[in-house]
Design goal:
Strand content: 15-25%
Number of strands: 10
Number of helices: 10
Structural class: alpha/beta
Bound molecules: uridine-5'-diphosphate, magnesium ion
Order of helices and strands: EHEHEHEHEHEHHEHHHEEE
Shape: elongated
């Protein structure tokens, strides 16, 4: 069976279109399938649309969160609830063409891959400044992390059951799925595709949100910033030590003619700034550790169209 997981946040306009397209593509593959929609606390009519679809079609399942937990939590919930042997993640806005599903399915079934991922070959329709920062991010994170990050890799992927189980083993609270998918390894096939505009609604990712998300990725998959902070500290110590010797020698030979206040002020600022920077970096990791140790659930379900166990009660 094929499961497609669809995280939805304010997608009432795109959902009916998505449903039709996906249904067409899945029917043409000719395998049993289920569509698992995860309503991530939408504030529009998304939940009503999902209720409607699930009444009409028994292949439609949905899980609805009690508030917006973010796409990462939605994807994780999808993996937890998926019953299929082949599991895909797709956006509800049709930016991930359902026509590619068949090729992905065959690659896992016949070619022996465990992961098939779609890869955007162009960043058309994206602001140039965003593309620029995206490229910088990939170059940087590949240098400082063990997991493999591929530029243009989207969340549109199909996984074998083996890969899904591996993903579920990673229980971390601060999830960065692009890293998780790379970290678990397995043979991955990349299929190129052209970027398309979303069919309806608006993207929920602002530039600021993306920037914070990329920092999240770096902190979750690399400890290099900690090392960099220490290296900066060592360099400053060395410099000041050398400076000290030079000053002492100078004073002994020529006396102490003029006090260098501007230099002092600059040095103070520089050193203070670098300490602040290091503390900030340590603080980021500490904050993540703090959140991780609370072991909070990734999401809270308020409603589904099937009986599940919520807090020990059958709902
Ligand atoms: N999404 C979500 N929770 C969020 C934000 C987004 O479930 O907090 C879903 C959204 O409904 C869509 C997918 O994640 O199906 C991708 O979001 P979007 O299209 O806004 O991102 P973009 O394609 O612009 O990167
Ligand atoms: Mg989109």
């Amino acid at each position: 069976m094929i499961t497609i997981i669809v995280p939805c946040f304010n997608e009432q306009e795109s959902l009916p279109l998505f449903y039709e397209e996906a249904k067409k593509a899945l029917t043409s593959i000719g395998q049993p399938y289920e569509m698992l929609f995860v309503n991530d606390g939408s504030r529009d009519g998304t939940l009503a649309v999902l209720r409607n679809l699930s009444e009409k079609d028994d292949k439609v399942r949905y899980v609805s969160f009690s508030r917006n937990f973010g796409k990462e939590a939605a994807m994780y919930a999808g993996f937890c609830h998926a019953k299929g042997d082949y599991v895909t993640i797709m956006d509800a806005d049709l930016q991930h063409p359902p026509a590619m599903l068949e090729e992905m399915y065959l690659a896992i079934k016949d070619e022996g891959y465990d992961i098939v991922a779609a890869r955007r070959v162009s960043r058309k329709g994206e602001p140039p400044i965003r593309s620029f920062f995206a490229r910088c991010f990939y170059r940087l994170i590949n240098k400082i992390s063990n997991a493999e990050f591929v530029d243009g890799a989207s969340d549109f992927r199909m996984f074998s059951r083996k890969a899904v189980d591996a993903i579920l083993e990673l229980q971390e609270y601060n999830r960065f799925s692009k890293g998780v998918f790379g970290w678990i390894g397995f043979q991955t096939k990349w299929i190129p595709y052209e970027n398309v505009e979303r069919v309806a609604g608006e993207t929920s990712w602002s530039f600021w949100k993306l920037l914070l998300y990329s920092l999240e990725g770096i902190i979750a998959f690399s400890t290099a910033p900690l090392a960099i902070a220490s290296v900066i500290g060592v360099i400053f110590c060395l410099l000041s030590f050398i400076g000290l010797i030079v000053i002492v020698v100078k004073t002994l030979i020529w006396g102490d003619p003029v006090a260098g206040y501007p230099t002092l002020a600059c040095l103070l600022l520089l050193i203070g700034g670098s300490i602040q920077l290091s503390l900030g970096i340590i603080g980021q990791y500490l904050a993540k550790t703090y959140l991780e140790t609370k072991r909070r659930p990734h999401y809270i379900i308020s409603e589904t169209n099937e009986t599940v166990n919520i807090g020990g009660k059958q709902v």
